Structure formats: C-alpha cells, structure tokens
UniProtKB/TrEMBL annotation:
Cofactor details (free text): Binds 2 Zn(2+) ions per subunit.
Organism the protein comes from: Paenibacillus agri
The protein's name in its UniProt record: Zn-dependent hydrolase
One Pfam family per UniProt: Peptidase_M20
Domain Peptidase M20 dimerisation: 215-311
Length: 417
C-alpha cells in the first residue's frame, strides 16, 4: 500500500500550468491584466475548468461564478476539505498572485487521485470570483458570497468604463439575482487551506521557502474627496486660493503618521485631480486610502483618528470633505489545528516551521466566516507583487504545493462528521 507521506506533486506539470495561465492577459512589458469578469479573465476561467476536468475532478460553477473542482471522498455526508484562491489580477500584475493557489490546488487533487490515496472527506479546489476588488472597488466577492456575506448593493458598483457589476455578471453567464444562493453552511466545509505567495520579503530574509500564517491583516478602504475652488494659476494670488491639493498634502502626511503610531499600515493607491490642467488650480482631489492592521480594535482606532485628522485640516482651510468607506474586512486568526497540521507537513517535507503574520488580504479572510482556515505562504523574490517582476521560483512553488498536499491528505483521511 502506498505511503501517503512519500507522495509529491508533479512540479513540472504545475510550472507548465503557471506559465500557460500567465500568457492569458499578458502584455509586452511582462505584466498580466485579468480584471474580474473581463474577456481575459473569462478565458482564464475556461483554462482552469479544462485543467480541473483533465485532473479527473467533477467541475461546476456556483451562483456567484466560483469554479469548483471536486474529488469525491468515501464518506459523501462528511464536510469537505477545501483549498483554492483566484485568477483575477490587478492592472499589470504578476503571474503568481492567486493563480498559484488555484493551480497548485488542482495539481494536489490530481496527485491524490492519480496515486489512489484513500480519503474519507471529499476535497474541493475553488477558483473564486473577484478577489482583488480592483475593477469594482469591493473584493472577495465570490468568497463572501460562499460564506454568506453577499450584498446585493454591490451589483450597482461600476468599473472605470461605466459597466456595472450586474451587467458584467450577466455577460459572464452569472445570474445577478441568485448570487446569494452560493452561500454554504458551516456544516458543509470542515476546513479551508489556501496557498499563496507571500508578497513580502520576510521569507526571503530568512532564507526559507514556506511560511505558516498565524493571522491575516484586516483592511479598511476609504475614498476621500477634498473640494475647493478651481481658479486660474496665474491670476489668483496665493492668499486667495482655495486649493484642495495643498490640504491633501497635509492629509497624506497625517495618515502616514497615524499609521505608524497605531502599528498598522496605510497606503494612498490612487489620486486624481480635477480639472487636471497644468495652468489650473485644482477644484477637487479624490484619493484612496488602504488601511490594514492585525487587530480589529486598532484598525478601527486608526480609521477614527484619520477621519478626525482629515476633517481638522480641511476646516482650517475652509474646504469641504467627503470620506466614504468603500470596503472592509476584519483581521482573522488561523486555526490552531490547521497550523499544527501545516507544521507537520513542513516537517515531512524537511522544511523549517516559520510562523508569521500575513499583511495581504486573501479569500481566506472571507472563508473564515464559514469555517476554520489555514494559510501557506511561499517566498516572493525581493518581496515584489502586484507587478510584472513578481516571481516565486519553481522550487519554492513546489515546496508550498507539497505542504498543501500533505495537509489536505491528513485533514481528509478521517471524516469524524
């Protein structure tokens, strides 16, 4: 009888699939743009479904557009063990973010099936709809729907070209009116384990391939609008100006300082001026703020402090201010039982056990509302992510996938309904 501990994934097959998916949405600069539910991402979905079918999995799409590949277990009534991630990207992103978790999940289930490893619980690999939130300003849409957190108001969100989420879902063959039916019960999924690149430099500094996440930062996204008065750049004296950009400059420094004081992180990812001409004092500035922290209370305190600081700055300059929270997710803690299993899997693969906090958000955040979660992180070269230079070596991807393999095997062997 085959010893499950001796099994390894087919690293060449995994790398080939990563390269193939990386060509979908690729540009001449080496970046990949597969925004959620665009033609490029839909083409990527077809590729993922074909891989699932080739792996011998039962393939279906749920009401939220999540793609699910199932490897049936011996106990059809037992809660399943799930893995997965996403294939949508940021603009000019990299080939590993999200994609590694989906493709490694397929490879792991394929290996288990090929090697005839018996397992009581069914195994699922899930390719979630719109994790990044780039196109419509709200992320984790598919995993939120699965975990019971869907909000029909999201259907009215629009992308940069004026298309609503409702419209693009219809175009993709997803019925907007039934998305909430993708929700699953806590009794249906025993555990969710995600494999993802680190998107940071911690593992590289340690010289190790794989890390075990103990927690994932929560986030709060804000859209800030500062309004003043647009005037001629030459005829308006400095003392008569109502320039929202100078106030914004002070606000950005305040945001940075508040993040440092609270032990969190804050990022201004977008900034737009109107009317946006070289010889016109802007009348309006709109920018985004991405706040993150591993503790829910401190994340809230950071948001409150920033709102107060921004308000005080515009009042001093007699400007108007609007702050809208566009998206948020609480910090989550990994399951101790799953972390213990991940540690055992690291030992099987002769890898050190390194525990760390994950600063990037993943579908595991939403799935934590539904079941116990675990997160495996794979080393990122120079910590670069959301960029064409994003890179994880074939050896590191293989190491992470093998940790996932042995974790899923152990979690699925016994049903214990």
């Amino acid at each position: 009888m085959l010893n499950p501990l001796s099994v390894q994934i087919n690293s060449e097959r995994l790398w080939t699939s990563l390269e193939a998916l990386g060509q979908i949405g690729a540009d001449e600069q080496g970046g990949i743009t597969r925004l959620s539910l665009t033609d490029e991402e839909l083409t990527g979905r077809q590729f993922v479904m074909s891989l699932m079918a080739d792996a011998g999995l039962e393939v279906r799409q749920d009401e939220a557009g999540n793609l699910i590949g199932v490897l049936a277990g011996e106990d059809p009534d037992a809660a399943v063990i799930a893995t997965g991630s996403h294939i949508d990207t940021v603009i000019q992103g990299g080939r590993f973010d999200g994609a590694l978790g989906v493709l490694a999940g397929i490879e792991v289930l394929r290996t288990i099936k090929e090697q005839g490893i018996r397992h009581a619980r069914s195994l699922e690999v899930i390719c979630f709809t719109d994790e990044e939130g780039v196109r419509f300003g709200a992320g984790y849409l598919g995993s939120r729907a699965m975990s019971g957190g869907w909000d029909d108001q999201w259907l009215e969100l629009k992308d940069a070209n004026g298309f609503s989420l409702k419209e693009v879902m219809e175009n993709a063959g997803v019925s907007p009116g039934t998305v909430a039916l993708a929700s699953r019960s806590r009794q249906s999924i025993q555990a969710y384990v995600e494999l993802h690149i680190e998107q940071g430099r911690v593992l590289e500094a340690l010289g190790t391939s794989v890390g075990i996440a103990t927690a994932i930062y929560g986030h709060c996204w804000l859209e800030v609008t500062v309004r003043g008065r647009a005037d001629h750049a030459g005829t308006t004296p400095m003392k008569l100006r109502q320039d929202p950009l100078t106030a914004t400059a002070a606000q950005l420094l305040a945001i940075e300082q508040i993040a440092v004081e609270h032990g969190g992180v804050a990022t201004i990812g977008t900034l737009k001026l109107a009317p946006g001409a070289i010889n016109v004092i802007p009348g309006e500035v709109v920018y985004s703020v991405d706040l993150r922290h591993e503790e829910a209370e401190k994340l809230l305190q950071m948001e409150i402090a920033i709102r107060e600081a921004l308000t005080g700055i515009v009042e001093e300059k007699s400007l108007s201010l609007s702050i809208i929270a566009t998206d948020s997710a609480p910090p989550v803690r990994s399951s101790q039982m799953i972390m213990d299993t991940l540690a055992e899997s690291c030992r099987i693969n002769e890898l050190p056990e390194h525990y760390m906090v994950c600063g990037a958000g993943h579908d595991a955040v939403a799935m934590n509302e539904l079941t116990d979660i675990g997160l495996i992180l794979v080393r990122s070269r120079d910590g670069i992510s959301h960029h064409p230079l994003e890179w994880s070596s074939p050896e590191d991807c293989e190491a992470g996938a093998n940790v996932l393999l042995h974790t899923l095997i152990k979690l699925s062997i016994e049903s214990n309904k």
